[in-house]
Amino acid sequence: MTQCPRKRPDHWLAWTGGALTLALLLLPRSAAAQMTTGSYVGNGAAGRKITGLGFRPDIVIVKGNDSDGTFTPTSTILRSSTMVGDSSKPMVLDNALVGNEVQSLDVDGFTVGSERRVNQSGVTFYWAAFKVDADMKVGTYTGNGGAQSITGLGFSPEYVIVMSSANRRAGVRRVKRAPPFTPSPDPRAFRRDRRQALR
Q: Across the strands, what pairs with 39?
């Protein structure tokens, strides 16, 4: 897998043997990877624990039932085990990692902050949590200003999400439906060519 120039750390998720539908991973066969979903009603309090998952998640995705595609505070939030502190990534527009969202990934769940994207009082939030295994990986790399291959996954990924720690929107590549892409002339546009190849 290669990527366009990056100057800051990027986080990536990759998996094989599955398909992503409505941000949920559907595995066609039994695997050691685990996934569960749920919901909670926001109370606006920081340090709120969401428990009962049965495992420590490596990835948590949270989305409230309020929506405005141009308003960042209603965007989906993704947190991976590679993100330090209480950092999470808003999955819309150009955003850096932010705090006070998914504050931690815990032994039996995760903890959310008081921020509107994850805990607005009275809003119902839906979440999906994943535990990685040999068929699903998370990791980081540091951009070098040129194309580079990310290796060592142990499989050829079918779906990859790349999230910059800088003020850039996340990128997605799905191999089964990936046509040849032409780089966008607008650097602020969604650059579908960021993941140039999945091997």
A: 126
Residue tagged 């709120």 (tokens): 48
Q: For residue 198, give the DSSP letter.
A: -
Are 15 and 158 within 8 A, CB to CB? yes
Using DSSP, state whether 73 is helix, strand or coil: helix
Can you tell me the distance from the alpha carbon of 104 to that of 120, in angstroms, rounded to the nearest whole number?
A: 18
Backbone dihedral angles phi then psi of residue 74, each to the nearest 5 degrees: -105, 10
Class of residue 116 by CB neighbours under 10 A (exposed 0-12, middle 13-18, buried 19+): buried
pLDDT of residue 94: 84
Inter-residue contact 24 to 128 (CB < 8 Å): yes
Three-class DSSP category at 157: coil
Which own/partner pairs from 177-185 qualify as long-range (CB within 8 Å, at least 24 positions apart)?
183/4
pLDDT in tens, 131-162: 998 888 999 988 888 888 888 888 888 888 88
**Kind of pairing between the strands at 159-164 and 171-174:** antiparallel
Residues ≥6 apart with Cβ < 8 Å to 152: none
Tens of pLDDT, residue by residue over 45-76, are 999 999 999 999 999 999 998 765 556 566 88
